[in-house]
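Q: A reviewer asked whether we had any structural model of the full assembly, not just the individual parts. We don't, so I'm hoping you can provide one. Inputs are below.
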Amino acid sequence: MSRAAVLLISLLLAATSSAQVSSASESTSSIKTQGIPQQESHSGGMAAGPPQRAEYDSEHRPITAGGFVKTGPTIFMDVAEKAGLTTWHHTAGTPEKHFILEAKGAGVALLDYDNDGWLDIYLVNGSTYDALSGKATPPHAALFHNNHDGTFTDVAAKAGVTNDRWGFGVVVGDYDNDGWPDLYVTNYGKNRLYHNNHDGTFTDVAEKAGVALGTWSTGATFGDYDGDGRLDLFVAGYLHYDVNDPPVAGSKAVSYSSCQFRGAPVMCGPHGLQGELHHLFHNNGDGTFTDVSEKLGVGNPDRYYGLGALFVDVNNDGKPDLLVANDSTPNYLYINKGNGTFDNQSYASGYAFNGDGREVANMGIAAGDYENNGHMDLVNTTFSDDYDVVFKNDGTANFTDVSYKAEIAAPTIPFVGFGDGFLDYDNDGWKDLLIANGHVYPEVDSKGWGTSYAERPLLFHNLKNGKFELMPAVEGTGLAVVTPARGAAFGDLFNDGKIDVVINNVDHVPVLLRNVNPDHHHWLELKLVGGAKSPRDAVGATVYLTADGIRQRGDVLSGGSYLSSNDFRVHFGLGDATTVDTVEIHWPSGTVEQFKVTAVDRILTVEEGKGK
Amino acid sequence: MLGVVFGTFSRLLTIALAVTLFCPLGIAQDGDSNSVFERGNTALRKGDATEAVRDFQQFLKMEPNSAEGYFNLGLALQSDGQLNEALTALHKAASLRSDMRGVRLFTGIVNYKLNHLSAAHDELAREVRLEPKNAAGWMWLGITELAENQADAAAAALDKAVALDPNNLDILYHRGRAHLLISKESYSAMFKLSPDSWRVHEVLAQADAQAFREDDAIAEFKLAIRGAPHEPGLNEELGDVCWTAGKLHEADDAYTQEIKNDPANAIALYKLGSLRVTRDDAANGVPLLQRALALDPTISDANYYLGKGEAALGKDEQAIEHFRLATNPQGTEELRIMSWYQLATLYRNLHRSQEAGEALASFRKMKAARDQRQENKFQEQGRRRDQLPRQEPIPATAEAP
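A: Here is a predicted structure for the entire assembly that you could use as a starting point for your response.
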């Protein structure tokens, strides 16, 4: 009786005002509604989609921090501790995350800074308010040198790359074509351009180079947009933010509606706050850069909230186009016209919105040809209550949202996606997808919304038919590791032909997902060295590899994922093929070279103009 | 509750009636008494009830047989919280002029405030008999009947009040309360009569669904369906809850059963068709949507899903036609906006650049207008909230600068 009474009262309170009596039926017994049962309003806060149903596993854990299975394939193992990475810890403000500055986390870069043939790891750190005001020692970034034995040693202090500012993003590029990778680190405040001194140390030349800025920068990407053989630099801005006057709910500057998620008070933004400008710096070739963003129309006049950024050729004309994933606002796609200018095709290309024509909270960008048709497809990670969006490319920069068809959409809805990347984890010749997740509101842990602050990564296996299969989170493996993830970088850390993933977690130690998938497939990795008319590190090069009847595409890209930078070596899984029919390299200079490879399971260095 | 009802509204009503009833009467009073009367009215308008009481009492010493004086004294006394005294003054006014407008209304109101519900009811019933076009009279009669737990009578009175003054928020509020009470009584009676009847399960299911307890709602709907397996509508409601809960396969089964029970249910056909299209089963969704539209062409939104389904099947021209129909102003705004976006996408894929550009422009224009409206709404909410006490300051642990 009491339950019934409660239910009756709740019914009465809910007041089914929208209900209508059926006209089609003589019966008046049941209520029929005209609309299909979908909610329309968004959740508020950083979310763009309507609130979705809470999802729990059999042990009543939110699916984002549960859904584990006891048995299944062991694909990744978190070896961060064994590798020595857990001596380092990311820190950003306070655990409560009262302000958005504290919540966006930081990226990670994989680079061979000392040219010893082994990938090293650069992890960006945040900061604290005390450090900003000089009252405490700032948290340091880490540069983990690869010891070639599965372990790493933090040499950041010795290398002079601790940053010691409130850091967010990192991107790798040999901007001066000296054959040594340089680092660009984005901050709240002035950014760093760490020039590689070729002796294991770096020198910050950002001010001298004219790329220091001083606002809140996030994603960055190197690319030779004008084809002069030198890497230019794009830097996305997030919010115009004053740490001395942070946004507070109900203040004159910020309405309450910008500071709520599902009706609960949370940190303010980005809605209701002013977006920061984006910057494109042209490389002058003399160690300095010139800001051409306004001139070229890529400076974010709409004041969107930029996060992920990537130069990548999406219309197969050999020129790097520019993508910017904007948080809670439409994405940008600037098509490179080949004459040093861009055409804003954000809306016309279909990349600005998801397939419903709705802007989502875009975070990271994965770029890869997952259908092996030579077209560069994209996956943008987004906030919870929205699905991560798979943008299928028809080869002319015409994108279609195929997230549901690809079976990526539904599993990603409860998660807040950040870093993402295509990787052929099982070397079967088809690119799979890994997404690092973590919520931004610590409050979600106490709300029963079926989501969690710390979340597990999602690995989608390519089924070779345009669809993906979510791989199980087997207990004890890397796919069951639950962290508040942000940046993720992909690369072959152990030179074993298997792509590993490093994840930078907010207020947490990093995760190193070592690829231990027990396949025996073959592989090939190409380290490209550009000639006189290409960037030396070959950023912007596209490789088509044909083996066993499958033609794959791989690109040398700088940036992408979430505020991160991946291995420059182009990796191909070959399945059971033991020879490669052709390797066709489209160099940034426009030169195309083709050759055969008869030996596989190795890393080849290919210099432009030298055949192989 | 009574205080809330009586609070602001009765004060405003009192002043308004005092002004409108007695200013133009042209009472035959000498210059002094007239100015005292006016002084009392002014004090009442300003909300100074104590001063108004003094003025009207002084006036009545000069004009001891003035019905108007007693009436206004009654209003001032009730505003001053002296309800028994107010009642005495109003009775005196009525005894001096039994046809006086408003006296029974306010006598009823004061009786209501004193919780003399029966007396209040009598006075207000008499008031509406004498003044059948007095919306306030009907409203107060309805309010009194609500307090007397006479929901049906209250609803009837408040329906009349709404008919006379359809834009009065107070009347609309009390009318809503009356009808909710009727619903509650109906459901309670149902439960007492037969706690395990399918109708009770249906109501419980609806209650669960409204409270987002989808699993409970599904269970109750299934119990209702077990009791009345062929009842039209039940399976559709079950389908709705399953869809909301993300149980799409079960939703499909429920809608399918609904259509078996009620083949002419265009809405169920529309829902099942839309569900199948969104589940990437356009081949089986499209025919259902076509049937739904054949039965009821006014379901404009069905055109959107039909367009989606046809696009998925590669029938681009048909998809364009249906997306165009879905941009009809009769459809919901969200789907109209999305239809323009789908049109832009389709035209783009067909390399019809000009049409793609036009559709995209329409999409962006409608979206911008919608977004601006939402932003204005948020801003307005913010402005309203700015009037509330400020949020608690950030705890010291935040270490904010």
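A: Points you may want to mention in the reply: The radius of gyration of chain B is 31 Å. The first helix of chain B runs from residue 2 to 22.
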